[in-house]
Amino acid sequence: MFDRRLLKNFGWSLFLMTLAFSAISLLNLYSASYETGLVSFKKQFVWVGIGIVTLAMVSLLNYRFLKQYSIYIYGFSILLLVFVLVFGKEVAGSKSWINIASIATIQPSELAKIAVILILARFYDNDYQATPYGFLDLIKPIILIAVPFALILLQPDLGTALTMLLVSGSMVLFMGIKKWSVALILIIILGVSFYSWHYTLKPYQKDRISTFINPSSDPLNAGYNSIQSQIAVGSGGVTGKGLRSGSQTQLRFIPAQQTDFAFSVLAEEWGFLGSIFVLLLYFMIILWMLDTSSRAKDKFSMLVCFGIAAMFFWHVVVNVGMVIGLLPVTGVPLLIFSYGGSSTLTAMIGIGIVLGIRMRKFSMSREAIDLG
Amino acid sequence: MQDFRNRLLIITVILGLAFLVLGSRLWYLQVLRGEEFEKFSMENHIMVERIPAPRGRILDRYGKELVINRTSFDIYVMPKDVKDIPYLSSSLSQMLNLDSNQIEKNIKSALKKKSFKPVLITKDINRDQLAYIEARRSSLPGVIIEINNLRQYPHGVLGASFLGYIGKVSEAELQNNSKINNNDLVGKTGVEKGWESSLRGDDGYKQKVTDALGREVESNLFLEDLQDKKSMPGNDVLLTIDIELQQAAEEVLGEEAGAIVAVDVNSGEVLALASKPSFNPADFIKGIDSKTWSNLVNDKSSPLLNRATQGLYAPGSVFKMVPSVAALNEGFINEEEYVYCPGYYKSGSSTFRCWKRGGHGWVKLRSAIVRSCDVYFYKIAEMMGINNLNKYITAFGFGSTTDLGIEERAGISPSREWKQKRFNKPWYRGETIVSAIGQGYVSVTPLQVAMMTAAVANDGKLLKPTLIKEIVSYSGEEKFKHAPTVTSNIPVQKEMLDLVKDAMVGVVNDPGGTGRAARLKDLTVAGKTGTAQVVSLDSQSKERKHRDHAWFTSYAPAEAPEIAVTVLIEHGGKGGSVAAPIAKKILQVYKKLKEEREADDNV
Questions:
Q1: From CA B56, how far away is CA A200, in angstroms rounded?
Q2: Euclidean distance between CA atoms B22 and B592, whole angstroms
Q3: Is residue B53 a contact partner of residue B204, using CB atoms and an 8 Å limit?
């Protein structure tokens, strides 16, 4: 039964910010892909459309169903991750993509992030343990994180694996954890890394990880990209060179300028003003999510909002940090801003979930009855 | 829940701080240093200059250089830096004797693709051309001179068949090794391929700021971000080959198609591995041109085939050591039992001929080997059957590769199971009988025959042959040192092998021996001849391709064996008259070289 109050409580500000964001990202992609015939611009246009429809549908879904079905969502993501390892399409050396009837390719690892946020929120919601948590209390969530993490690492898609670890780690820390348990978990992570490095990883996987950790070992890509990206950002100056006028962008000095380095295109063509505007927009979106989290009536919705806010936060920090030369080059896209169907969809689903929770925070009792 | 609200407050503060850091960095890059960056982006490029590492050298066992490197100067053009394409193309074409239109086309197509990779114009220009271009560089913006390393072969074509050649890296090889770059040359065959990972160096690089002419300029931007790395030359590979013995082997083969293998019978070290006809590895150093390549591939004499390790032949009578050892060791005969040879052998309704139509009369083990009587071996083969015979064929290493590390073929050690699997047909008794004289399904490489001979000489150890004595890094560090490896111990009593060895001495030294042409005055040679049929015995064709393969395998000195020499001449005719004299020459050279070196050591 549709409740009119839902519409009244709809988070219009977040929705409008999302729309504004999509428009800016499309404009930016228009410029970045003009020289290559706008192929990715057109595709992204469709993806944004699909994303907004998905966002609306997800927001209409009662989050209690999400909680109920989080196990199935999680299980399905794991299946997809296994599927992609076995049957996946290889792009640039990584098996991260599933071809859907050769129309579109999706990247299950992006969607798996949402699944992990949901399953962790469910774990903590069902658990009435007093915080902080000790190591033994956390074995279950650690396994829940480790399985998709390992599967994504095997593809190998190190950027996504890293953000998944950051997001779920933020959630675990947020819920409280004993100090010595942090130490123990770090020791276990080191031990497992050491073991897999020496016994299970294939040479090409090792190569990718070592370039990931030490980019200067592959100068033609990592270190070089960082320098070129900084030149593009810096040369944008205060007001930027204008749409389709960024020389670094248009001459394609920057690799992956439509995906991972999309922010450098913005910074070059719209300058300090443009890039600060986009950063502020991100800041507002994350703030809005945290606000929703603080108003939440139960642990599950609070933690889901927090997790999605953390996902946006880490994507911004890792990606923008890379573009402006503060952090190493890692293949982490900027959510909604970079070209890519799966990451756009993930971001839209995330926003849709937060909107859904916001809408329902005033009508708790009634829906409890509805659920029977 | 209040507890979490407080935490959210702290997190909001962290969030704000993180965005402040990002914003400050943007302020620094775009507002404070924006003008500098803008100027830089208009005038300069960041270039990554690759410093190619030379491949390791390949040396013979005494350190003589077989494959080394020399410097080459290669000309590239960076398309986006060219001011006047027609002018540049015609200038370069005049200086380098190249087609001006082709250069123009290449540069334009790279520009169209918006490629920022330099376009290769030509490799390995000479000193005059280099000086000429160097002097005119300022009027030729976009031209890049790259220093590279090219393979050089001080001994010419010697050893080409096992040294192998290099060629442009393939897609698959690129995938497997992150150290290889797009246009690199890598080992394609032989030692160059087998020890690619040792020979390949680690390329260095240097990031630099250049102006539009490609000249390095000073820039205070990115001073700390620019990186470089020294190149690391590949390891030197010391072979077990004695290039002087190799030279003798290739010279005696001359124009014949065939192979010579010489191995140390105690260590498995390959001293010479000759295969003719062969190719010139120098044709490959810059990437082979398609015409030379198609000539090599289509050449009917198969110059790219290493006959010593990849050539498969019926062994003929050099194989007779195997049934001898098998029948003795399994107790089907003893050395005193006589067999009558009337010149043919009947089994059921079939008749098998001895090569000597008139027959050998009464023969026993020693005389059967010395005079190479076929009937004797037909008889013992039929007595023991294929299962017993196959056990020893396999034990002597036939039917599997020796793991030498270069291209090799396994050949066939025939058995009931093999035939069932291959042809889905049962085994016939006649096939056992012809197997004993190295005909029928048996097929072997000259290297396998040499290893079998070495195993007889060293009292039953089948050694793993090796081409590599040592691998030494550029800085002199020892990376690998060969130690003799026994592949398997052949299950045979020493007394039985002694009988066979004594007979092999007789082959060369007895008055009626078939291998007398290999006899040396001051070195006791033991050997066995072989004449392998290519077509049936009755064919009287005079055509060369129907003539028999000539084999001779030997070891010396018989008293304390050191070296085994195996010779195969394709369609050469009789082993005793064609192959044996060649083995004799090799052994002579071996002895001479050894005496010279001992004399040198004493000085």
A1: 31
A2: 79
A3: yes
Q: Are B355 and B406 in contact (CB under 8 A)?
A: no
Q: Does B182 lie at the interface with A, CB-CB under 8 angstroms?
A: no
Q: Which amino acid is at A166?
A: L
In angstroms, rounded to a whole number, what is the distance separating the alpha carbons of residues B165 and B188? 6
In whole angstroms, what is the distance from residue B27 CA to residue B35 CA? 12
Given an 8 Å threshold on Cβ–Cβ distance, is A230 in contact with B29?
Answer: yes
Q: Annotate B395-446 with DSSP letters as a single string.
A: HTTTTS----SSS----B---HHHHHHHHS----HHHHHHHTTT-TT-BB-H
Summarised one tens digit per residue, pLDDT across range B490-533 is 989 999 999 999 999 999 999 989 999 999 999 999 999 999 98
- Pick from A271, A306, A273, A312: nearest CA to A290: A306
Q: How many helices (H) and strands (E) does chain A have?
A: 15, 3
CA distance B130 to chain A (A): 28
Tell me the chain A residues in contact with residue B205 when contact means C-beta distances shorter than 8 Å: 219-220
Task: Give the chain B residue whose CA is nearest to the CA of A215.
Answer: B227
Helices (H), B65-219: 85-96, 100-112, 127-135, 160-163, 171-176, 190-194, 196-199
Q: Where in chain B do CATH 3.40.710.10 domains reside?
A: 243-277+308-602
Are A238 and B34 an interchain contact pair (Cβ–Cβ within 8 Å)? Answer: yes
Question: Does residue B306 sit in helix, strand or coil?
Answer: coil
Q: What is the DSSP letter of B216?
A: B
| pLDDT at position B170 over 90 | no
Task: Count Cβ–Cβ pairs < 8 Å, chain A vs chain B.
Answer: 135
pLDDT for B308-342, tens place per residue?
999 999 999 999 999 999 999 999 999 999 999 99
Tell me how far CA of residue B591 lies from CA of A235, B58, B240, in angstroms. Answer: 76, 25, 17
Mean pLDDT of A166-176: 91
Count the Cβ atoms, other than its own, within 10 Å of residue B19. 21
Q: Is A327 in the B-facing interface, judged by CB distances under 8 Å?
A: no
ipTM of the complex: 0.88
Provide the angle, in degrees to the nearest 10, between the axes of the packed helices B100-112 and B85-96.
Answer: 140
Interface of A with B in 260-319 (CB under 8 A): 267, 271-272, 275-276, 279, 282-283, 286-287, 290, 293-294, 296, 299, 302, 306, 313, 316-317
pTM for this prediction: 0.67
Nearest residue on chain B to A322, judged by CA atoms? Answer: B22
What fold does the segment set B47-239 form as a domain?
A: Penicillin-binding protein 2a (Domain 2) (3.90.1310)
Q: Closest Cα to residue B582, out of B215, B175, B272, B131?
A: B272
Query: Is the torsion defined by CA of B432, B436, B439, B441 positive or negative?
Result: positive
Could you report the per-residue pLDDT of A237-258, keeping only the tens digit for each?
A: 998 888 777 766 665 566 677 7
- CB–CB contact A35 B114 (8 Å): yes
* A residues 204..223 contacting B (CB < 8 A): 204, 207, 216, 218-220, 223
Would you state the structure tokens that stand for residue A65, as one six-digit string?
Answer: 């169903």
- For position B249, what pLDDT does the model report? 96
Query: Which residues share a beta bridge with B259?
Result: B275, B568
Cα separation, B32 vs B82, in Å, equals 33
Residues of A in contact with B47 (CB under 8 A): none
Domain extent listing, chain A: 1-60+215-372, 63-213
Helices and strands per DSSP (H, E), number in chain B = 19, 23
The answer to whether B222 contacts chain A (CB < 8 Å) is yes
* In contact, B475 and B341? CB cutoff 8 Å: no
Contact assignment for B225 to A272 by CB distance below 8 Å: no
B243-277+308-602 belongs to which CATH class? alpha beta
